[in-house]
Input
Amino acid sequence: MDVAPLREQLRNATQDCSARGLIFAAKWAAEQLCSLPAAAEKLPVSLVLPKATETNEREQRWAAQDANEHDQMLLAKCLFDMREFDRVASHLQECKGPRAIFLKLYSRFLSSEKEAGSVDKEEHGQEEMVVSAEESEQRQAVARRKRELVAIRDELEQLDRATGLDAFLLYLLGLVLKALGQRAQARSALLRSVHEYPCNWSAWQLLETCVDAVRQPIESLSTETRGAGWMHHAFMAQMLVEQFGGSNQDFAVHVRHLQQLFPESPFVQGLLAVRHYSMREFEDASRLFAQLQKTDPHRLDLMDIYSNILYVMEDRARLGELAHRCAQLDRFRPETCCVIGNYYSLRREHEKAVGYFQRALQLDSKYLAAWTLMGHEFIEMKNTAAAVDAYRHAVDVDERDYRAWYGLGQTYEMLNMPHYACSYYMRAAALRPYDSRMWCALGSCYESSGQQRQAIESYRRALLGSAENEAMAITRLAHLYEDSGEQAKAAYYYQLLVEHAVKNPLSDQPAASGVGSSALHVSGNGQMDELAAACLFLAAFENDRGNVAVAQRYLVQIVDGASSAGASQQRVEEARAMIRAMNQKDTAA
Output
């Protein structure tokens, strides 16, 4: 496939989005444009571009109107770039072309957001209770914003019925409908928009927020967007990372297609890095982020996620270096404040960390990461009321944020309110169905509230997900079945626990002298006792069934493991006592 049509498509997208003030979409298109292979005349993959259609009468009329209003648009765009949104709307009041209408209505939308955001910033910066006058001002601002949004929606819908809307006005309609909470209608408008003009990345990102992955099968959405050509792959790869952490097998297919088109794209490299992060493969994610930073050292996009990785890895040196570099680049970016907040959190200076997360929210009140991370900091400070407030703000910004729902579950668990915690953990598990941490937390809550059957189902569901919490889920299932008197099922899971310990020995533990691979090698006194208890249970279970030789093998594992700190002394003595009793029984017989 010739690269020239794709290059032309991306050039036009950069210009069209930039002319309408969609700077993030323009930047995204320009990045992909510069990521195309410079010397290649042919692409290594077949490329589906939208079919060219003949210019109809309506589009000719729109083009003529835009040309007649070109001078007014030049001034309006200058005012827009200076964020004088009210002046833009006033200046373009009499214009009739679709480009002018978009910039006029988009400026009105941004003006209403700016007014409501200024009230929110004042509230976020205060630590005392909000007085009634400020509450009244906030309510009035919210009411004015809603009236303005309804007016913009009505004007767009009336225009759609009269002459139709172009792709950018459909995007704006979807944006307004989403802000009004009408997600289904917004989704329909955005699907129309991306099919008419696929290279508006802002429309794709907004469409992703209107998708309910819990209730809507991913296959149906893939079918609905397939006609958008190669942008379908970019959207699906992005959504699969955001919604499923990249665990879906189709992710690799979409990314492979993008890599063949844009071998040097920072967008694609960022997708792969975030996927590793979501799957808790921190070393691989850190390596990709370091490469991305080396390629573009002045880039701040995704650096907040990179700082999360370094925080989990407890790499204080690299996190400090990243925070210093981000502060030098732009101290007033929310991502920079987030990185610095993570640095102070790693140093256990939680008050300073909260201060930087609050500064990030003053810069962008809808910056999701800051709300969630601030909730984590309040948990560390034992301020559960503030943590709940932060997490609730996070789910108000994006109800698909499983971290915020999980944080709410943890907070209510700390408050000894397991029923509320179960509800929030369930929301997190629904958003991350293959994350064993969600199901283990839910199972623990069910246990503490006496719902043993539900706890068993949750732990069994955890075994279908990631292997990170596999040992915990197996252990709890064995205990629950043992407590309920289901000895055979308990024995099954205790056997799984022993096999898990044998298959996953710690590399930093010395091998037991004279012992084969069946000796127990585990870490921590609690885990040692769990495995020793499992072997004791299995020995008693097999002995009762008449399998004395099998029972003694389990007991020997405990005794032999003691030479390498494999089991506690109490468990070892119990095992030796059981061996003596079996031997005495055999002698007497």
